[in-house]
Amino acid sequence: MVKGTEFSKVLIANRGEIACRVIRTARRMGLATVAVYSDADANARHVREADEAIRLGPASARESYLDIQAVIDAAKRTGAGAIHPGYGFLSENASFVKALDEAGIVFVGPPASAISAMGDKSAAKARMHDAGVPLVPGYHGDDQNDARLKEEADAIGYPVLLKASAGGGGKGMRVVESGGNFQAALEGCRRESQAAFGDQRMLIEKYLTQPRHVEVQVFCDSQGDGVYLFERDCSVQRRHQKVLEEAPAPGMSEELRREMGEAAVRAAQEIGYVGAGTVEFLLDADSSFYFMEMNTRLQVEHPVTEMITGEDLVEWQLRVAMGESLPKRQEELTLTGHSFEARIYAEDPEQDFLPATGHLERFVLDLSGAGLNPDRVRLDSGVETGDEVSMHYDPMLAKLIVWGDDRIQALATLGRALAALDVRGVTTNRAFLQRLASHPAFQQAELDTRFIERHEAELF
Ligand code: ADP
User: How far is CA 311 from the centre of its chain?
Assistant: First the structure.
């Protein structure tokens, strides 16, 4: 990253809700905005909302949003001094960041070296071990010989989890219940990992049977200072993918919150981190926590952190990218109330969550009609009534975010807001989210990563 560089125009190398989200804050800060788009998105909401828009290429992501040269050319053509990558696409691509450095364009995110340090799960774990960050018992070594891996799994004790070192998005991951199943699982994982990431290296972890997924939001500036903006609980997952997130994590003691927060900042500083990052931990029933991975970008679920802290994380990102120091010190950050985020997907829960497409005849959240307080309900959307939902990209349409004085109140607001969201023309997971939000076990905060699996019968 070019440090201390002022810029007055930012290009958003993304689409959908996150592009719209970044445009909103950039505009409030007085920055000019440039959208980029593929042919499938020529009339998309983010294109309509930006000051300028540049076509990248055809619909396929590889020829548009993932095309490094096309994105850089768009920035040069429009005179954008900085690029915000959003999440997904090029946001964690070290080559992209290097190319921007060479072109003299500010990357709103960490240096390429920090992305590389966390990009490989095995290397990241070795590094975190050295920094004194607790790890799940396991093996993340270079020796990938079948017999050696089996020996390590036996020593860890079953069940174990095989994970692709290069993995992400829940791919290349398998639970192995016993030694007898190890070889078959190893071969399956290698195949999957080769296909998805072009890499076969595996790591092995003790499989925790009822952990929670608790992640810490961290922020670092280029002066070397770092803070944590508390944690999020993202235990409600389907096939290792998040569905509903909340902040703070229920039942955390102040002491555990501080311990995890400090471990997360240590993890970030170990790799010379700059900007917004998330350190993901597994939290066991006995309050032991273990580093899982660090996401070197703004997360989908960042709004729940904004709701409980009152901070605008995109503003923080842009300020840090301009070379400013962190807007607040640790002791100036406070946590108030409780927040939830529900991800609204164009998908059909009745048909194994198959992505849905079509013409959005209506996509409206009428807050006043439903008696909802606009300070407490936020819809981060990439679409509006009349838009087309194509099959080219991630099917997430929007995120519904709510805030309440406490968890019970926030959950009640989430239920009412979900009911008030009027979507027609495209099938969504809304009814599934409603069942989830009103489930007694969820209301009681009986959270762990197998929540959906355990309650399947009542949720579908
Ligand atoms: P990915 O990068 O593919 O998303 P992660 O390493 O972040 O993979 O893990 C995704 C999810 O898998 C976690 O949120 C958690 O639910 C589950 N998981 C990962 N590691 C373990 C483990 N050792 N034991 C139990 N569950 C795990």
Answer: 18
- Residues sharing a CB contact under 8 Å with residue 222, sequence separation 6 or more, in sequence order: 1, 3, 4, 274, 320, 323
pLDDT digits (tens, 9 = 90+) for 60-111: 999 999 999 999 999 999 999 999 999 999 999 999 999 999 999 999 999 9
| Owner of token pair 């290698």 | 190
CA of 85 to the centre of ligand 1 (A): 24
Nearest to 334 by CA among 427, 404, 230: 230
Question: Is the ipTM beyond the 0.90 threshold?
Answer: yes
Q: Which residue of the set 232, 297, 343, 378 is catalytic?
A: 297
Beta-carbon count within 10 A of 41 CB: 26
How far is the C-alpha of 229 from the C-alpha of 308, rounded, in Å?
A: 9
Give this prediction's pTM: 0.95
Q: How far is the CA of 139 from the centre of ligand 1 (A)?
A: 15
Active site residue 297: yes
**What is the per-residue DSSP string for 329-359?**
-GGG----SEEEEEEEESEEGGGTTEE--EE
| DSSP-derived secondary structure letter, 210 | S
Above 50 in pLDDT, residue 1?
no
Token representation of residue 7: 């810029």
The alpha carbon of residue 368 and the mean position of all alpha carbons in its chain are separated, in whole angstroms, by: 30
